[in-house]
Amino acid sequence: MMVVTFKLLHFLSGLFVSLKLLALAQEENQFIYHGFTGANLLLNDIAKIHPNGLLELTNTSKHQIGRAFFPFPFQFNTSLFNNSRSLSFSTQFVFAMVPELPTFGGHGIAFTVSPSVNFTGALAGRYLGILNSTTDGLSSNHLLAVEIDANRNPDFKDINDNHIGIDLNKLLSIDSAPVTYFSDEEKENKSLNLKSGKLMHLWIDYDEVERLLNVTVGPITRTKPTLPLLSTSLDLSSLMLDSMYVGFSSSTGAVASSHYILGWSFNRSGQAQSLDVSKLPSLPPQRKSRRKPSLRIALPAIAAIILVLAISGAVYIIRRKKYEELREDWEQEYGPQRFSYKDLYKATRGFSDRELLGRGGFGMVYRGVLPSSNKQVAVKKVSHDSRHGIKEFVSEIVSMGRLRHRNLVQLLGYCRRKGELLLVYDYMPNGSLDKLLFRNDTPILNWVMRYQILRGVASALLYLHEEWQQVVLHRDVKASNVLLDADLNGRLGDFGLARFQEHGSTPHTTNVVGTIGYLAPEITRTGKSTTCSDVFSFGTFMLEVACGRRPVESERPPEEVVLVDWVFECWKRGAILDTVDPRLEGDYVEEEMELVLKLCLLCTHRTPSARPSMRQAVQYLDGNATLPDLPLQGTGIGLVPVSNEASREHVSSYSFSDSESILSGR
């Protein structure tokens, strides 16, 4: 009986000791401070505890460090009752940053988990008192820090001057976010300003099982938000040593802030205890200058302020006038195709002469790079009078912007100012075709390139005549209106004389528009433009490409002045290839060249109904149809002779309702 009693007493004694050790272990694994009066923290550099228990890490001194750490390391090694190694921990604290200058913070606070409290060589400023340029990034640091950063440092790729980040062994954060908290009532994120001087509550929780580090922030007037600011997957097994200290490090730089910790709770083996805000110490009152500036100082200061305001107002008015636009309510539906004048001004470097691509009777064209997308564009400045049908004019411009074909120059949009219209196009780096055809100081286009350009422009005209939702009459097809992209593909542009009409409708009589040498004969008689008149211009354009000369050249012998008549006469003599551009030096496919020259003669027939449609022209050029024979005798092919004085005139009515002056600026 005595043996049994002795064994029972021995068991109870052991159980008591175990429970005592468990309680001690739990106490050693956690703590909570509401203020730090009597706390045995390890304080370094300028950190101090105020009489009311407020922990001040730094004051407004420049380039200083302040640290405060719990005096004993926490054991993350084998626990008392099992062999598992637990790395989970939870902490929360209330802090405040009171900057010396309202809009400049310096630099911030880092909650730090470190194997030592000896940070030899650590620097102030951007290094937050825990690292320097040599130690930053070393795996031997075994350092985890959650930085509360009120200063943006480009070297560490900080996202802004008001963020929280997670750092492992270096101050380039593996994850960071602007300081916000999730409002459970309003179901949205709310911003917090670290430099406001207000109290804020921060929670840090690491779950070893989930390998997840959550950082949550909020004002002290709210409970812990349900959604964290940062939730980062993290494996700390290689970073955490068996024995680690926890605490705070803070620093100032060229600008300074007072950094305060008011309360702190930590638990290595469970959830940290909640802080009671009512038990926290108060911040010191912010100092205000008691000296009133003398009148002698105040008056010059007031005068200087007034002068600065006046200069600023004048600059604002000048800048506003500089970028002023005309905008009317009816233009809102064209919003996506409307560019701001400010963007176009910057894109062309203020419409600098260095960016000038060309000039003509209707305006000048500039190269530009849009600041928003870095896209190269061509910007044409055209004078206009807003009293003449500008609404219909812009409507037609927007309609042109909806045209989509690989062989059309894309009109991207427009901008309006008083007395000025700006049109924005895709930039064509190789300029207009006529420069390569007619100038001796440019590279020679071989026949393969020329034939490909002809097929491309024919395809574009077919799209305009038959394949778009309306019939688009270009009314000014010529080599100078064909632009070359980077791959020397021909793109038909300059829709300044273009006109829209419904499929199947009868053309209306308008003023005679176009360029002498390309005008179909019926236009001069009736004033009516049709798809047949575009075919006529296309035929003349093909002659330009094949023969390497303009349609009318008065300085040539009389029989060669009008190109189409000369080609027709040569064809009748069986010598049509004599008209081929001599710069080709005979390097071309004869069958293709004969096809092009004969097709030119068909397209320039004086009778509109005798001309092929653009669909037929494409089929001939693609080799999908056989070109009909030309009549050897007859008067149906050729231009009406023109006088030398008129040979280079550009005929236009300058009417806004016909969109005749939009694009002709070469």
How is the secondary structure organized here?
Layout: H1 2-28, E1 30-34, E2 42-45, E3 48-49, E4 55-58, E5 65-69, E6 74-75, E7 89-99, E8 108-114, E9 144-149, E10 163-168, E11 175-178, E12 180-183, E13 188-191, E14 200-207, E15 212-219, E16 230-233, E17 243-251, E18 257-267, H2 295-322, H3 341-347, E19 356-359, E20 363-369, E21 376-383, H4 390-401, E22 411-417, E23 420-426, H5 433-438, H6 447-467, E24 471-473, E25 482-484, E26 490-492, E27 499-501, E28 514-515, H7 521-526, H8 531-547, H9 563-572, H10 590-603, H11 614-622, E29 650-651
Antiparallel strand pairs: 1-18, 2-5, 3-4, 4-18, 5-17, 6-17, 7-14, 7-18, 8-9, 8-17, 9-10, 10-11, 12-13, 14-15, 15-16, 19-20, 20-21, 21-23, 22-23, 24-27, 25-26, 28-29
Helix pairs in contact: 6-8, 6-11, 8-10, 9-10
What do these coordinates show?
α8 (531-547) runs antiparallel to α10 and α9 (563-572) crosses α10. Strands 1, 3, 4, 7, 14, 15, 16 and 18 form an eight-stranded antiparallel beta sheet that branches. Strands 2, 5, 6, 8, 9, 10, 11 and 17 form an eight-stranded antiparallel beta sheet that branches. A five-stranded antiparallel beta sheet has the order 19-20-21-23-22, with helices on both faces. The chain is elongated and about 115 Å long. The chain has three domains: 41-87 and 94-199 and 217-231 and 238-266, Jelly Rolls (Sandwich), CATH 2.60.120; 329-426, Phosphorylase Kinase, domain 1, CATH 3.30.200.20; 433-658, Transferase(Phosphotransferase), domain 1. It contains eleven helices and 29 strands. With 666 residues, the protein is of the alpha+beta class. It has helices at 2-28, 295-322, 341-347, 390-401, 433-438, 447-467, 521-526, 531-547, 563-572, 590-603, 614-622, and strands spanning 30-34, 42-45, 48-49, 55-58, 65-69, 74-75, 89-99, 108-114, 144-149, 163-168, 175-178, 180-183, 188-191, 200-207, 212-219, 230-233, 243-251, 257-267, 356-359, 363-369, 376-383, 411-417, 420-426, 471-473, 482-484, 490-492, 499-501, 514-515, 650-651. β14 (200-207) and β15 form a beta hairpin.
